[in-house]
């Protein structure tokens, strides 16, 4: 495999996007993401998919610049007018992000799919990775979790309209303000919370950083309705796979199944997960508020403890 001196972030780790330096002042941030319908409304699906794809650029500290659309569409089964609604939803979020749509590609596919390949820019010396967490840092989360449970509940017809609307608004909200706040204050490590759930992405962070972490479940913000769905075991296959994976390195203590499910819940277009030196935590929370976003301290980073389990162990307290 070709390695280049200007490849700053590649596939060797678990970062959210690739970063390639083109000059002393500019590096490109590149990512791609697409998925099948997450909600029934085509316009909202487009919004959510676009916000989700843009999030990887924000998590690296970058600013989205251009986007290419990717579409799979069953042309003989679904009207093209419906696809138009999906594309309009994506375009609305791109406009909000000031990201220019430059083209794309579509294929006739048995199952509808939509997403974006996004290119952003960042200064080569200001890239945020997920491997810089240090003992003593606190862990900050910028969006509530529970989207996997709620979208699964939507598909099963057991979610109230108000719960659905709140979840859609969260998933369609850009992480642009959170990214601006973390750039202003400076953080040790950053990632976004998506398909691997809170514990899965935190696991990547602590393993890459050579540390461990503690999460205070009582502090973790939940979307309305998520706890009730977890208690009713309205759980997707992806979340079940996440849970089986994170149990290898997570010490749940006396946490019940609902708690475990929530922490492993497969998210779509979740918030940023940040670690920052404890004395700077309040400044970060204030910066998030100034940017119209939110943040909650949900845990802390600790020294790696080989005697207490596998490398990168996480404790729920």
Which SSEs are present, and which pair or pack?
Blueprint (H helix, E strand, L loop, with lengths): L6 E3 L8 E4 L5 E9 L6 H18 L3 E11 L6 H18 L2 E9 L4 E10 L14 E5 L5 H9 L5 H12 L3 H10 L3 E4 L4 H13 L1 E5 L10 H6 L5 H10 L3 E2 L5 H8 L7 E6 L3 H10 L5 E8 L10 E3 L1
Parallel strand pairs: 4-5, 9-13, 10-13
Antiparallel strand pairs: 1-2, 2-3, 3-6, 4-6, 7-11, 7-12, 8-11, 9-12
Helix pairs in contact: 1-2, 3-4, 5-10, 6-8, 8-9
Describe this entry's structure for a reader.
- This protein is α+β, with helices and mostly antiparallel strands and 317 residues long.
- It has 2 domains: 7-126, PurM-like, N-terminal domain (60s Ribosomal Protein L30, Chain: A, 2-Layer Sandwich), CATH 3.30.1330.10; 137-316, Alpha-Beta Complex (Phosphoribosyl-aminoimidazole Synthetase, Chain A, domain 2), CATH 3.90.650.
- It has helices at 42-59, 80-97, 147-155, 161-172, 176-185, 197-209, 226-231, 237-246, 257-264, 281-290; strands at residues 7-9, 18-21, 27-35, 63-73, 100-108, 113-122, 137-141, 189-192, 211-215, 250-251, 272-277, 296-303, 314-316.
- Strands 8-11-7-12-9-13-10 form a 7-stranded mixed β-sheet, with helices on both faces.
- Strand 4, helix 2 and strand 5 form a beta-alpha-beta unit.
- The chain starts with 6 loop residues before the first strand and ends with a strand.
- The model has no long low-confidence stretch (mean pLDDT 95).
